[in-house]
Amino acid sequence: MYCSGYMLLMFALVDCNNFYDSCEFVVTFAVSCAETLRHQNSPTNAVMIFFHTNGFRKDLPQYYRNIIIKTETPTNSNFDLIKAAYKALDCIYIKDFHHKKVGVIVMNLMPENQKQFSLFSNDNPKHQP
Predict the structure, then answer these.
(1) Of 63, 76, 111, 112, which one's alpha carbon is 20 to 30 angstroms from that of 45?
(2) Given pLDDT bands bounded at 50, 70 and 90, which one contains residue 48?
(3) Does 30 reside within a domain?
(4) Half-sphere exposure at residue 31, Cβ-oriented, CA atoms within 13 angstroms
């Protein structure tokens, strides 16, 4: 049984302070989430990206931020989840912070046969598994 409250979380304790390393982690997690969603036959319509600095290092500047990006239609496509992840990174990434925890959470999971399409969406059938 599926419920819209279920989530899938992937995160890592990392040690990075540049945009490209953070992008690599977030994109890897987004692809892993997409693979898991395809395996479960459950698309998502919301992706949360978060960054945290090391709270135990009081000598470094602190930064804790997350953002939720909604997709146009429920999806489990790599392309759509990576696009949402990049959009989130552009919004919340700030230079010169030493990130310790980076992660991706996909939310609002639903069964594949209950997908609600948008009248104005241009879903690409090539992105279907």
Answers:
(1) 63
(2) very high
(3) yes
(4) 6
Identify the domain containing residue 14 by its residue range: 8-112
| C-alpha to C-alpha distance for 67 and 49, rounded to whole angstroms | 6
CA distance 22 to 41: 28
Question: Structural domain tally of the chain?
Answer: 1
Residue 118 domain-assigned (yes or no): no
Distance CA 22, CA 38 (A): 24
Arithmetic mean of pLDDT over the chain: 80
pLDDT higher than 70, residue 39: yes
Structural domain contains residue 122: no
**Which neighbouring-strand residues pair with 102?**
12, 51
Percentage above 70 pLDDT, the chain: 78
**pTM value?**
0.78
Give the whole-angstrom CA distance, residue 44 versus residue 121: 15
DSSP code of residue 61: P
CATH number at residue 92: 3.30.1490.100
Nearest to 43 by CA among 12, 88, 6, 85: 6
Top-confidence range, 17-26, 60-69, 107-116:
60-69
